[in-house]
Amino acid sequence: MTSTTPPEIAAHVESLIPQFQFTRLLKLDQAGRRISLLGTITNQPAILLLERAAFPTDTPHLTTLPASLTNIKNLGANDIYSWFLGCSPPSSATPDLKLNLIYPCTPQHIKKYSEQGLRIVTETPAIYTQYIRPFMQQKREEGRLNWVFNILEGRTEQEDVIYRAPDPAPEEGFLLLPDLNWDRKTMASLHLLGLVERRDIWSVRDLKKRHVEWVKHMREMLLEATVRLYPELERDQLKLYVHYQPTYYHFHIHIVHVALEAGSTQATGKALGLENIVSQLETLQGGPESGMADVSLAYHLGEASELWEKIYLPLKEGRAVEL
């Protein structure tokens, strides 16, 4: 896949990978297919994530693949079924790893990518109003969204914007970006992010009954833009969802291929289907100002997350919450 990064920047960041000095393993997940490493680059902390890339599907490669396997060892056999371990041939032409580098990283990055226990919590309307909403506002005021606003306003990462709504009506502007975990070529693992331009909706909690038509319209525009970008896809091969809790508090929608393996980011306790949100808003009792802030939401948290350490653990232990 051709890089969309300016050549001088691409050359610089590519030069950082060989400089990575391993410190310790943070996490092994996705059945051992992804590994997160903590290290340093020029004495500054860095996180390197390595994930097995998708298999090439071109005919020449597939034709020669079985014969090129080495160190084949049988693990078992039963009737017509046999299973083995083996090594794929080295190839400089076909990358077999996808890498993500966070440099320099923060203590929060290290917590996020470290192995940690998970907890299920239930966020009631009262907990949201008293603790979670002020927590969100605190993060926004700390400048955690400056990078999002830079993209929306065209100051940074414009080479990664694959679609921007042309001449949008008020409150209908959005842009599409490839998710960092997509290799930008394998359609069955397509993962895009739809960033809305309006800034009054921080998360799904801000959606009210009066937003139903807006959400429906955004869904239609996101689907239309995606199939226009990738004509080999059809609308019913895509699913849309939002995260709660999200990674950052500016409303964004995930667009993924239905065949994308549903890991923890699509699991119950993290992902809310956009169609289900619309249905819940439509059936919610009350007037146009009633909304998702009026319902309880259950989700999982890592034990090293700020929300668990600052809010839910103190509540569980009967201690005062200090934001």
TrEMBL record:
GO biological process: deadenylation-dependent decapping of nuclear-transcribed mRNA
Species this chain originates from: Melanomma pulvis-pyrius CBS 109.77
Name listed for the protein in its UniProt record: Scavenger mRNA decapping enzyme
Active site as annotated: 252 (nucleophile)
Family according to the record: Belongs to the HIT family.
GO (cellular component) term, any one: P-body
InterPro entries for this protein: DcpS/DCS2 (IPR008594), HIT-like_sf (IPR036265), Scavenger_mRNA_decap_enz_N (IPR011145)
GO MF annotations, alphabetized: hydrolase activity; RNA 7-methylguanosine cap binding
Pfam families tied to this protein: DcpS, DcpS_C
